[in-house]
From TrEMBL, chains A, B:
UniProt cross-references to InterPro entries, sorted A to Z: BetI_C, Homeodomain-like_sf, HTH-type_TetR-like_transc_reg, HTH_TetR, Tet_transcr_reg_TetR-rel_C_sf
One Pfam family cited in the UniProt record for this chain: TetR_N
This protein's name: TetR/AcrR family transcriptional regulator
PANTHER family: HTH-TYPE TRANSCRIPTIONAL REGULATOR BETI (PTHR30055:SF234), HTH-TYPE TRANSCRIPTIONAL REGULATOR RUTR (PTHR30055)
Signal peptide: none
């Protein structure tokens, strides 16, 4: 298992088996990152920490960045909460942020990968986070449009712009809280309800 | 300067000469980073790009992280605009953000260093950015307090919390804009004026 060769899928495994093995690696990687974060960790060190060979890891992931993006994506898919249609846009934002900061390694991974996305226009992170921000903005804007229609959210700013602002606020306050935990993350983010309330 | 090894001062240069040389290196480093950003660049490669020896660079900076923080700090000190007391808190935020994104390498350096600060609690970045956020929040809160007293900014949220929110908004929208330049950075940030206006 530790020295699984590149030919394994063709020779003694099925595609499904390869997918399962990849998931298993990601599950273990999530535990490692949740504890340690990712900065400065080579693919070789990550392989050691997960308990697979460097070659095995390279079989499933072309690069360290590709692995890190896959870890983040997998972790996020695992904790996708069932959507509560009763929640306000700000409630959704606050819930996601407080859940995030409960897993320090994953918040670190997020900030590292977003920085990589900004730094490396041709990388995996850039594509992943550009799409992710688009998706999160679209979902948030839809929720805000519904709230504007219901008269609870101000409509002097369009829903897309408000969505961009709320997501920015959430990311930015999480960053400041990580550097200064005396900031009340939940209270600060909750104040957005007053900011976007209909007049 | 605190970190300048004692040997050079006594042995082959004056303290003032060392300071001047360090500034010169930082000036050249800023040009390099403004063009290329910093990700994945070793201290050796940075030395090459600046045109000094690796040993010279190590003489002035203990680590790559220390150099990067010094570059960011130096770049920021160079473009400190004279304070305009007439500017509103949101004007100040919008001006700083639009100036930032005009130098892509520096925005990349900012996001990389903030990610490093979050990832490495014992590093130079953590100390620098924790203090920097404190200072920026304090300045912004003072401005907001004056505006609350003048009746132009809402006072149902305290000035410190509003400052945290505005700074978060600015950082977060810059990040989204870097990944999706179709976002109107200036317009989005300017909407904060309406959000924080007195009712």
């Amino acid at each position: 298992m530790e020295n699984e060769p590149k030919s394994v899928i063709g020779r003694r495994g099925s595609y499904a088996k390869g997918v399962a093995r990849r998931q298993e690696i990601l599950d273990r990687a999530i535990e490692v990152f949740a504890e340690r974060g990712a900065d400065g960790t080579s693919l070789r060190r990550i392989a050691e920490a997960i308990g697979v060979s460097h070659a095995t890891l390279l079989h499933y992931f072309d690069s360290r960045e590709q692995l890190l993006v896959a870890v983040y994506e997998h972790a996020e898919s695992l904790r996708q909460a069932p959507e509560d249609l009763e929640q306000s846009s700000v409630d959704v934002m606050v819930a996601a942020a407080t859940e995030n900061v409960g897993v320090p390694g994953m918040v670190q991974l997020y900030s590292t990968l977003v920085a990589t996305a900004i730094e490396e226009p041709a990388g995996e992170s850039k594509e992943f986070f550009t799409r992710r921000f688009e998706r999160v903005r679209t979902d948030m804007a839809q929720r805000l449009r519904d709230e504007q229609a219901a008269g609870t959210v101000r409509d002097d700013i369009d829903a897309e712009t408000l969505a961009t602002m709320l997501i920015a606020l959430s990311d930015g306050v999480q960053t400041q809280w990580l550097l200064d935990p005396s900031i009340d993350l939940r209270d600060t983010l909750s104040r957005a309800t007053a900011l976007i309330a209909a007049r």
